[in-house]
């Protein structure tokens, strides 16, 4: 840093000299300013190679070898049921509903997906996917919740397994209601920032099951 400042100072002094002053310094002829060579900056690159045979700790073992890292893609289709579309556009017997517009509902469903999948693998007995539903069988419907300006936003969805890497989710209805009542044995996921709480209604009593 000191050398850099020093070079700049010298160049400024040379620029302020006239030709006679340069000659008096013993050159005999006008002094030609030389351009200082710029030193190209080369960023330091640290080459850190992972040893494929290395044994290191993971969530299961003190010493284990990682074989591969794979990302699985799941296609999810989002549908809006006519009942929800009518309620959003025209309202119901209580009038037009606030806070359940298409963008808001879609955003809540999108942000809830990873929580739905996580709970389905972590919590015994919880699933949100329907498959091969019989005509007289009641489908699983999950309630997605989040605190909003209108109160507690509740979005009721019905999700179906289509293929091993494809799900279909339909929004059945939505409303802002703080005292929304879950059906018996029905689950709800309430988002809270990046986290969430999984709740279940047991004989009209809602209890916390798990959280992330």
Describe the overall structure.
With 212 residues, the protein is α/β, with parallel strands linked by helices. The protein has a domain at 75-211. The protein is 25% helix and 28% strand. It contains 4 helices and 8 strands, in the order ααβααβββββββ. The chain has helices at residues 2-15, 19-27, 82-90, 102-122, and strands at 75-80, 129-130, 142-148, 151-163, 166-176, 187-192, 195-202, 205-211. Strands 1, 2, 3, 4, 5, 6, 7 and 8 form an 8-stranded mixed β-sheet that branches. The longest helix has 21 residues, at 102-122. The radius of gyration is 34 Å and the shape is extended. The model is unreliable at 1-17 and 21-25 (pLDDT under 50).
Uncertain residue ranges = 1-17, 21-25
Rg, Cα atoms, Å: 34 Å
Percent in strands:
25-35%
Mean pLDDT across every amino acid position: 84
Q: Which class best fits the helix and strand makeup?
A: alpha/beta
Write down how many β-strands occur, each being a DSSP E stretch of 2 or more residues: 8
Shape, please? extended
Encode the helix/strand succession as letters: HHEHHEEEEEEE
Helix content: 25-40%
Counting copies of identical and different chains, the oligomeric state is single chain
